[in-house]
Amino acid sequence: MTEANGTPAGLVPVPEDEPDLLRDQFLQLMRYPRLIAGGVLLGLLGGAWLGLSTADTYVATSDVRLRVATDDPFSATQSASKLDMNTERQDAGSRRTAERAAEKLGIGGQEEAFLSGLQVTNPPQSQVLRFSYTAADPQDAARRANAAVAAYLAVRRQDTEATRDSMIKGLKNQLNPIAKQHEELAKTLTSTSPESDFSVKANLLNKITELNDRISKLDSLDMTPGKVIRKATPPTASDGPGWTLSLILGGTGGLALGLLFAWVRLVFDPAARSEGDVARALRAPVLGSLPRTDPDDPLLADDRDDSPLAEEYRSIAYRLAYDRRFADRRRLLVAAPRGSSRTAAAVAVNLAATFSETGKRVLVVEADLRRPFLTQELDARELSRPSWTDENPGGAADEEWPGRRRLLVDAGESGGFELVPGARVRNVARSLTSPETSRLVAEADDVHATVIVLTPPVFAYADALALVDRVDGVLVVCDPRGVHRAQLARLRDLIVGAGGTVLGAVMHRGQDAMPVRDNRGRGRKQKKGARQEPRAAEPAPRRREEPTYIRHEHDDQPTLGLQTVSLPPDRQ
């Protein structure tokens, strides 16, 4: 029984902690070192450009505190709201100010060049304008900043005085007719004049007095436009962060940019890049991850105690042995999604060696009838024991697969296992679905027997799907970088739809290259350009063990045992 998500019944999946998820995501980002290195390189180039562009530039700054024209500069009721600092800032950076400053500097006609180096800002919540000028020479930068301040103050004073003079002129234009009327009325008045004439004279006098007061007030205005609170001086150091800080900032920004590139690549990468991706796509656990090996290495791993590859195969076998879905039937189909079947074959034969190490009778069936190769990769000898075809006269002939041929594979100290080698046939589908093949898989009904079936890649041929309903348990062997998550999900749907169960997955890293072979069919390493020396004579093979039937005390079924025999001279 399994849950809907593929988890064995009775086992509650433990959610990953947030630090584990972050660590897994970070490790996945590290799978794109070129993108990260490219981002860092771009950042360093940007930092170098920043350091180079600011190495010979100097900035001089001058601050001016503005004020409005007033007749009483010490009055506490003077309001600062009369100043629109945004308007004043735009006026300070206008072309009119630049023309006056350029004229003062003797560079008339270069107003645009002058404005390109000028920057006027207003610190928040203040009546201060800050003039910053950038130039290649520190003396020139200070001189131009002070010239811009002086030009702005002069323009602002001129505008204020022009406004005052205009107001005074208007008031005088109002005053002159009233004063003339008052003089004419005063000449005609006598002691006998009516009281109304004296009242008119008094009103005219009041208007004259009011206008004179306003004119006097305008004449007494303090027209100072502002005060320079910091005069620009030649800077002692160039503007910018400097070479060291520029490179540090560029490298940091480049690293962030590289991580962003890697994250975008990870989001849109369809490949299964981690164990979590494979497990989620197959809805089955990852039973092991094989270390990187050389394609020319033999299929059977070295069974020494310190061999990490052999220990990894043992770990996978033990995890399968404790899985009730496999332990109940002891049938296993090993297949790869795509590519070559070499790594899947290595997994199949090493699992067989491990199971035989625990006392099981193991049968490996090479169901790859299109490109069989196990007999060339394994050290195997013909097995002389009765097979089920001898007891079933109506079975397949010797030349038809699976036939009567069986081989005994020597697995070193682990013992040995039987192999039904693959063979090229005319009709693959008929051979895989024949009753003889079903009887071959049914040998796992013996409680002391295990059957492992090796098939070609599922997406290359449908051979594996023809055997899924009889084998049930499927072990997927894949390179996560060579298969897409959608393909793994589709693979699981095909297996489940054919009546099977995905027991788990075994991951590897690019180990599917076929090895170079010598004339004896065995893999060997060959360097480019190396001369082929005459091959030395190989030592005599070790003594082989051939199975016989023995009985256990607790079981009435015959079980495969091992005995030592001597090989004939023609087979040594």
UniProtKB/TrEMBL annotation:
Domain of life: Bacteria
Disordered: annotated span: 78-100, 509-572
Keywords (A to Z) from UniProt: Membrane, Transmembrane, Transmembrane helix
Chain segments annotated as transmembrane: 32-52, 243-264
Biased composition (Basic and acidic residues): 85-100, 509-521, 530-557
PANTHER family per the UniProt record, alphabetical: CAPSULAR EXOPOLYSACCHARIDE FAMILY, TYROSINE-PROTEIN KINASE
Protein name, entry field: Lipopolysaccharide biosynthesis protein
